[in-house]
Each structure stands twice: as structure tokens, then as C-alpha cells.
């Protein structure tokens, strides 16, 4: 019975973290649109790309992906390192977790 309780708590915390992560991601996009930062980023991307449509899109998406990843990093660390260690599911070092995350594995 104790294992079921532990498993239930683990999954509840993972689910909450996932919901919070989705909410933060949505809030990031809303703030980006409402604040005008999206238009500013588009203009900066166009200037850096020399007016190239494809280059503008690539730069815009690249910057968005990097900023989104940085915003999500604390929750990803909690879910992928802290929670896993707390429940004895991982002994992976933080450095290895970061390298694996950077490689997309």
C-alpha cells in the first residue's frame, strides 16, 4: 500500500509540473503578443536576415525556442532531476542531464 501511495504522489507531482509548464508556455506566448515583443522580434529578425523572408522566420523561431527553453528550464530540472532523485528513479548527474537535454535525447 505504501508503494501505491508513493507512486500516486510521484505521478500527481509530475502531472502538476506538466500542467504548470503548459500554463507558463501559454502565458509566455500571450505576453509576447500583447506586449508587442513579437513584432519587435520580427523586425529585429528581418533586419538581421537582410529582409530575407526565410531568414526572418528562422531567426524568429530560433530566438523564441531559446527563450522558451530558458523559461521552462527550472521546471524541466525539477521534473527531470529533483523529482526523479527524490523518488529513487534516477542517479544521473546534473551535468549529464544537461548534456542529454541539450542534445535533445
Care to describe what's here?
The protein is mainly alpha-helical and 105 residues long. Helix content is 86%, strand content 0%. The protein is built from 4 helices and no strands. The chain has helices at 2-35, 37-48, 53-86, 94-103. α1 (2-35) runs antiparallel to α3 (53-86). The mean pLDDT is 93.
Annotation keywords:
mainly alpha, 105 residues
- Measure the end-to-end span: 34 Å
- Estimate the strand proportion: under 5%
Biggest sheet statistics: none
What is the number of strand segments? 0
Unreliable segments of 5+ consecutive residues: none
**Relative helix content:** over 70%
Work out the radius of gyration.
Answer: 18 Å
Give a brief description:
86% of the residues lie in helices and 0% in strands. It has 105 residues and is mainly α.
Task: Tell me the layout of helices and strands.
Elements: H1 2-35, H2 37-48, H3 53-86, H4 94-103
Helix pairs in contact: 1-3, 2-3
Amino acid at each position: 500500500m505504501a508503494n501505491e501511495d508513493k507512486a500516486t504522489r510521484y505521478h500527481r507531482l509530475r502531472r502538476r509540473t506538466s500542467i504548470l509548464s503548459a500554463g507558463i508556455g501559454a502565458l509566455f506566448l500571450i505576453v509576447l503578443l500583447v506586449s508587442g515583443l513579437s513584432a519587435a522580434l520580427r523586425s529585429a529578425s528581418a533586419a538581421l536576415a537582410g529582409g530575407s523572408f526565410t531568414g526572418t522566420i528562422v531567426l524568429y523561431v530560433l530566438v523564441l525556442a531559446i527563450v522558451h527553453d530558458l523559461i521552462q528550464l527550472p521546471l524541466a530540472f525539477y521534473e527531470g532531476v529533483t523529482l526523479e532523485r527524490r523518488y529513487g528513479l534516477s542517479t544521473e548527474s546534473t551535468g549529464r542531464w544537461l548534456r542529454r537535454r541539450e542534445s535533445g535525447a
